[in-house]
Amino acid sequence: MAPMPRRLTRAVVAFTATTALLLTATPSGATAEPRHVSGYGPWHARLLGEHVVGKDVVVDGTRVGELSSIDYDRRTGAYYLIADDTELAPAHFYTVRMRVSGNGVSGVRFARSTWILRTDGTVFPALSGDGTELADPESMRVDPRTRTLYWGSEGKREVAADGSAELVDPWVRQMTVGGRNLRQLATPENMRMTATEAGPRRNLVFEGLTLTADGRQVVASAEGARYEDGPIAMTGHGAVNRLTWWDRRSGRAVRQLAYPLDAIPVAPEPPSAAADNGISEILAVDRWRYLVVERSFASGAGNSIRVYEVDTRGATNVLRRTSLSSGDYAPVRKRLVLDLGAVGLEHVDNIEGVTWGPRLPTGEHSLVFVSDDNFNDVQVTQLVTVAVRPSR
């Protein structure tokens, strides 16, 4: 989802009790450890650099911006970035060449723009178009086994006062690197849009996407809570989101786990102004663990981007449960491993995507983040690189 335009701020978002868990460099150059380690050793993280993409970059007739995901193809060295731009151009993604090193990102070149095609082979119309096959692209991952791409759409839910509705279910689809549709994974019934207060909320569905470490399953993260699962996150309380697993071969959903989303960490100013928090991305670490990006915004304060390590072992499969409001299940465990507001960046924008980049000569792993500028003059398309040593 591309949230409302963000007001740029140079101030670092104020710390809360939650952000006291973050990893950041100490004056001596050592690394502070998180207090809650859930049975694992600490992650060590340090900022490598930042690259801001200019507002005037145009590729194959499309203006670069509203980038909602990023993924690295280790076989070719290319990066794929999907665009959440369905008003200025049909649904599309970019193939990007760039170098990631100990100095951050350099040599960024948007090589080409590729249309994402519908099942009939035509390009997607704008969201105001007709029909039921309308896309709201939010996430994309490379399948290294087949050299194809999986991508997610949040669908559409517009309900008028008279009860009439425009409904398009969210989906995860597979396509070629040329944009040709191959298939659609089966959307679970509990993630289908309705005209009543049941199922997913508008623009709070499949925002994040990853493949499992063994490549056998596809995982999508919902940005916010379904109606039956409780309220969305506010400054006084968090929410319960769903993570969904599909079997890659059959295309059927096989598991859902409950994710405890944080409360909005910083109150907006004034208190009645807009604020939100949701999952913007998910990334596999190993068989059981994932990184989850919580992206929050508060008017007058700006963005807060926190990355959590999630452990799925022992969590209850809630795929067949209509409601999670009772709390009689075991959610995934999570711990904060990185706060982008505390690694030395002057400004943190609307981060929506993250990928593992190449291994660094130091033995560290690189993480590359991308922001969605919403085509807003006071926001930026930001590529941020961080070096990490994951816990074992």
What would you report as the Rg, rounded to the nearest angstrom?
20 Å
Oligomer: single chain
Number of helices: 0
Count of distinct strands: 24
Shape verdict: globular
- Spans of at least 5 consecutive residues whose pLDDT stays below 50 are 4-41
Secondary-structure element string: EEEEEEEEEEEEEEEEEEEEEEEE
Query: Which structural class fits the helix and strand makeup?
Result: mainly beta
- Rounded mean pLDDT is 88
Q: How much of the residues is beta strand, in percent?
A: 35-45%
Distance between the termini: 33 Å
* Strand arrangement across the biggest beta sheet: 1-24-23-22
Largest sheet: 4 strands, antiparallel
**Which range best describes the helical content: under 10%, 10-25%, 25-40%, 40-55%, 55-70% or over 70%?**
under 10%
